[in-house]
Amino acid sequence: MKLNIGSTDRIIRIMLGIAIGYFAYSTVIEASWVQVLLYAIAAILVVTALIGNCPLYSIFKINTCEIEK
Question: 9: closest CA among 42, 53, 41, 43?
Answer without folding.
Answer: 53
